[in-house]
Fold this protein.
Amino acid sequence: MGKTERHNSADELALERFLPYRLSIVAQTVSRALSKQYGKRFGLNVPQWRVMAVLGRFAPLSASQVCERTVMDKVAVSRAVTALLQRGLIERTTDSTDRRRLALRLSKPGGALHRQIVPLALDYERQLLAGLSAQERATLSAVFDKLLRSA
Amino acid sequence: MGKTERHNSADELALERFLPYRLSIVAQTVSRALSKQYGKRFGLNVPQWRVMAVLGRFAPLSASQVCERTVMDKVAVSRAVTALLQRGLIERTTDSTDRRRLALRLSKPGGALHRQIVPLALDYERQLLAGLSAQERATLSAVFDKLLRSA
DNA sequence: CCTAATTAGTTTCATATGTAACCATTATGG
DNA sequence: CCATAATGGTTACATATGAAACTAATTAGG
């Protein structure tokens, strides 16, 4: 008769246990800690760092391809690209077959900076993962995929 | 001799597998989907919703206590409180013993709104968790705590 | 071909967020 | 007591972000 609910009385919401809230806190904390690694030191914000990261692996890419790979909208990408161009960290050439498209790639100094940041980022990730068992890591990864699908 | 690294060549960063990035994407996706539930319909943004959520359970609270419970900084709380006061969703009285402190609680209409939102939020959470096994849920929760500590 | 619809990317404007400076009140130390 | 520090909260300014309007180039349909 008494319907026993899993959480609490089913119409009480404990923020500190609420999944979207916890996700948000963890993501924000991690993201901030990481940007301290490269933010101050290299003068990059998150969108800029993401653009450099994908260009480091997949260049040349058009801005819209960068959008897909980073899940950022085109405004964010456009702004990051503008800033990176001004600092000379990336280069842009017009696609010969489609003059709307602009091919982006890291410049020489951009590549150098990229090679500096990547190890820092990977170290930080290693540090995060260090506390987790192999099983926890696997579950986490699977759960992310599931959450993304049902969100 | 060849040092076999777990990921890829150890100095390559695959953004789509990079933990901070994935966390950020998942959190953002979930957060947006959820705010659609209450954002448009009730005219609340995330900070405002969080303030209402904690006041719904723990009122009366001072603004700084709200900060602790929501992990938001005091500026964010102050702004959310101002907006909620203007809409008459919360009330504020001055603490008699310390006139710096202002005690916050939901107003009558605020309480009514809270009772409308909470089931929606819990439903959404249930939907997210529905795809996960009990084991996955437990691991997720434990992993969040670990990540927060090492971040 | 020539117009309408699409696509790539940028700009604009309105809103959100963070840092630091700020005001008011209460606590502390000589 | 009185000056100084600490606390609670708000304001101001600078930067970040998102939605929608816009420009330029390409494609599609008649």
